[in-house]
Amino acid sequence: MNPTEQFEIEVEKNIRGLREDTDVQALSRIWLREITPHKYAYNFKWMGRPIIQLPQDMIALQELVWDIKPDLIIETGVAHGGSIVYSASLLELLGGDGIVVGIDIDIRAHNRQAIEGHPMMKRIRLIEGSSIAPETVASVAEIAKGRKRTLVLLDSNHTHDHVLGELKAYAPMVKAGSYVIVYDTLVDDMPASFFADGRWGPGDNPKTAVREFMRGTDRFEIDKDLDSKLLITVAPDGYLKCTKD
């Protein structure tokens, strides 16, 4: 066995140990609960744009992009643009002609200006509209035609019905070996008091949408190894690996 294989076996053992360590699993959930009111994820930028992601999930995405080598990344939810800039920069490192399609129902003027003026804009296409509107889905499907490998990141409206609609719309564009990542499944594990505005919360959120979607598909499985490896993630049970075309 060569040193690389030995290292990979060691990593697999580490991940199994983390999965089986109920204390560290509980500590991770407590840490996430306690930092959420402080909007911890808001405090990071990528290439000058607020990314609003946990660093652990950023590293996970980087690993997946390197392994999958997508030529199209579809992202719902644009906000300040940091996430689509991050995805675009990963595609830039891969080379080729890969692009990111960023979809948002409201791309605010100051954010659009900053994104369109960014060096990574050459790999970004912006679509303003609801991510589940038929015309939006049709536009994205047209872009996806001829692309070899698509990766989907869902991070817009976090209600059950909206995320389920996104999964039904965009999961068919993903082929075996790639992923749909559903962010903010963590909402289901947080206290209801964190969501006083009532738009979403425990029982009505991305994780409940994932559960319903998974009951109706045999093309995807939840990547539990990623959950165990990350521990700190906004997407527990949200890394969905496509297993068949």
Features:
single chain, 7-stranded mixed beta sheet, 245 residues, 9 helices, two-stranded antiparallel ribbon, Rossmann fold, 15% strand
Tell me briefly what this model is.
With 245 residues, the protein is an alpha/beta fold. It is 43% helix and 15% strand.
Number of domains: 1
Please name the CATH architecture. Answer: 3-Layer(aba) Sandwich
Radius of gyration: 18 Å
Shape: globular
Identify the strand order in the major beta sheet: 5-4-3-6-7-9-8
Mean pLDDT: 97
Beta fraction of the residues?
A: 5-15%
CATH topology type: Rossmann fold
What structural category do the secondary elements indicate? alpha/beta
CATH homologous superfamily label? Vaccinia Virus protein VP39
Query: In terms of per-residue confidence, which ranges show pLDDT below 50 for 5 or more consecutive residues?
Result: none
The major pleated sheet works out as: 7 strands, mixed
Distance between the terminal alpha carbons, to the nearest Å? Answer: 33 Å
Individual helix count: 9
